[in-house]
Amino acid sequence: MTSDSTPEPDWYDLIVTVGDPDGKPELLRPPRRARITTKNYRGETVVLELDVVARAPGHVLVAQAREGQEPWHAWIRSSEAVPLDAGD
Questions:
Q1: Looking at residues 29-39, what average pLDDT do you find?
Q2: CB 49 within 8 A of CB 26
Q3: Which domains does the chain have, with CATH numbers?
Q4: If you placed Cys at 54, which of 5, 11, 42, 61 could pair as Cys (CB 3.0 to 4.6 Å)?
């Protein structure tokens, strides 16, 4: 049993990774910005603007910033990412 003063794990707000995709990933240089609609580990659907840093068949790898830590990288389905135009 946890008390109300027990802090939540810091990973709850991170995007759920679907695991390594099939096929060889291609790094994107420079990364491309996209609007991501996916689930976090809290179980919520979130909409975020993130960098897409790699792609593989049917998937993209996004980088989610974390305060004071290295970015979290998560493979998500490519259908969950909409590229943003440079003007967005």
A1: 97
A2: no
A3: 12-83 (2.30.30)
A4: 61
